[in-house]
Automatic annotation (TrEMBL):
The lineage of its organism: Eukaryota, Metazoa, Chordata, Craniata, Vertebrata. This is CHMP6 protein. InterPro entries: Snf7_fam. The keyword Transport applies. It is found in: Endosome membrane. It holds the Pfam family Snf7. One of its GO terms (cellular component) is ESCRT III complex. One of its GO terms (biological process) is protein transport. It comes from Chunga burmeisteri (Black-legged seriema). Keywords: Coiled coil, Endosome, Membrane, Protein transport, Transport. PANTHER family: CHARGED MULTIVESICULAR BODY PROTEIN, CHARGED MULTIVESICULAR BODY PROTEIN 6. Belongs to the SNF7 family.
Length: 154
């Protein structure tokens, strides 16, 4: 279409020059006929330009549609991948793993406390009871006097 436009443009320039020459020679009717032909070719040139514009728009639409198709294909593949991952890892499986992890963390915390010397509440209570028993055994009570108490003086 671009080559066709170039060819028509060259023809237009030649016919315009020829129309000038015909007018100089006094051949007004032939010049008028040539200018009508030139006008018709200008209209063809405009139509050609519109066709080129339509083709360019169509090419852009096709390219954009191809990009959209790639995006959709990517989304489709991503969705399939997610579905496969969901099949492998169910909600129950995740809950089980989380529960096991919490149990393991609690168990490790207890081990850390034992290694660090931290005692549980039960151990603390047992130690306090033992301390109270030892304290009462060691407490020395004052001696009770063996003599009778003096009577009250009125």
């Amino acid at each position: 279409l671009r080559q066709y436009q170039k060819r028509i443009s060259l023809n237009l320039e030649r016919e315009r020059a020829l129309a000038r020459q015909l007018l100089k020679e006094g051949k007004k009717a032939k010049a008028m006929l040539l200018l009508k032909k030139k006008r018709y070719q200008e209209q063809l040139l405009d139509k050609t330009e519109n066709q080129i514009s339509n083709l360019e728009r169509m090419v852009q639409d096709i390219e954009f549609t191809q990009i959209e198709m790639k995006v959709i294909e990517g989304l489709k593949i991503g969705n399939e991948c997610l579905n496969k991952m969901h099949q492998v890892m169910s909600i129950e499986e995740v809950e089980r793993i989380i529960g096991e992890t919490q149990d393991a963390v609690e168990y490790q915390r207890q081990i850390d406390e034992l290694l660090a010397g931290n005692l549980t509440e039960e151990d603390e209570d047992a130690i306090l009871e033992e301390l109270n028993a030892i304290t009462q055994e060691q407490m020395e009570l004052p001696e009770v006097p063996s003599e009778p108490l003096p009577e009250k003086i009125p």
